[in-house]
Amino acid sequence: MAEEKAKATTTTTTSPIRFGIVGCAEIARKVSRAIALAPNATLVAVGSRSPDKARRFIAENALSSSVRAVGSYEELLDDPAVDAVYMPLPTSLHARWAVAAAERGKHLLLEKPAALSAAELDPILAACAAHGVQFMDSTMWIHNPRTAHMRGLLSDPSRFGDLKMINSIFSFYADEDFLKNDIRVKPDLDALGALGDAGWYCIRSSLWAADYQLPKTATAFRNPVLNDAGVILSCGATLLWEDGKIAIFHCSFLSHLTMDLTVIGTRGSLHVNDFIIPYEEKSAEFSFASDSGFTELVTGWQPLPSKHVVTTELPQEALMVQEFSRLVAGIRDSGNKPEEKWPTITRKTQLVIDAVKASIDKGFEPVEIVG
């Protein structure tokens, strides 16, 4: 990959983390590029149930000739030259293969949704803890420097005040082929459908805005859209916290591409129109208003919201790989313990997913979320 040249501009003090990719899903193309861009990571192997498929993936993505094609997941996980794995398998396969990776001492970057339920996720996290490996899910926008900049404003009581309301939307208009053939609409592969795929981002953004405090209840909206197999194509929910703050989200495979996030406090409000994937790879914007009111004749706002532009040399997915690799290197080289923040927020996201799904199944009743 041409992007590998970017590594020459950054020096590292330890040897790079050696990645294997378990599965050749479409999203693995993006992450293989991210591994190439991250200064402290290198891709050494791609595993598939078919060696020909692994070889095609390497060729089609112009990966280095040193990247090995491996003809089974087991062989890749048993490879002592692999320090960590990125796993973009269908969600129904996570329980088996993520545990297998941890048991073989491989640090785990796991595609979202992390599992079909918290009951399936817990053995994965337990295996990672038992074998001292780092776990992280691949929610990329969390690693964009814009996210940290926004957090700074939300944490300023003099400008934002107390959190009151969060509204998030992630939708895209899927074509007929997607709605018939994509793994995200197959009950035996990704049974959570749009809730697990797009809803994961909305729920994570709500938890992020609430500083990862779990809501008390989730209540799904009536009339979700399901396909003939019962997989969710469009849904939404309300999340309610004990102190009265509220989040509303909508996720869908049936509406135009939208990635909006609004966070409202007593003194300020934040708006983002591309919170999951920025409009531009190396530049991300948002607006923030504080102590706004009307002009004298109520013909406008005063003061106007401020526009913020945050730039980055590395795209957010490469920053994700870089941070994951930094943690892995600390374990490998310095005897550090795995960072517990990442499995904790993954589990909280999964618990809210579970509650929304339970609310749908129970006739849209409120479902309590227990940590």
UniProtKB/TrEMBL annotation:
Organism (species): Ananas comosus
Family per similarity comment: Belongs to the Gfo/Idh/MocA family.
PANTHER family: OS10G0403700 PROTEIN, PTHR46368
Highest taxon of source: Eukaryota
Entry GO MF terms: nucleotide binding
Pfam families given in the database record: GFO_IDH_MocA, GFO_IDH_MocA_C3
Cited InterPro entries: Gfo/Idh/MocA-like_OxRdtase_N, GFO_IDH_MocA-like_dom, NAD(P)-bd_dom_sf
Chain ranges passing through the membrane: none
Lineage start: Eukaryota, Viridiplantae, Streptophyta, Embryophyta, Tracheophyta
Domain Gfo/Idh/MocA-like oxidoreductase N-terminal: residue ranges: 17-136
The protein's name: Uncharacterized oxidoreductase At4g09670
Chain ranges of the GFO/IDH/MocA-like oxidoreductase domain: 159-270
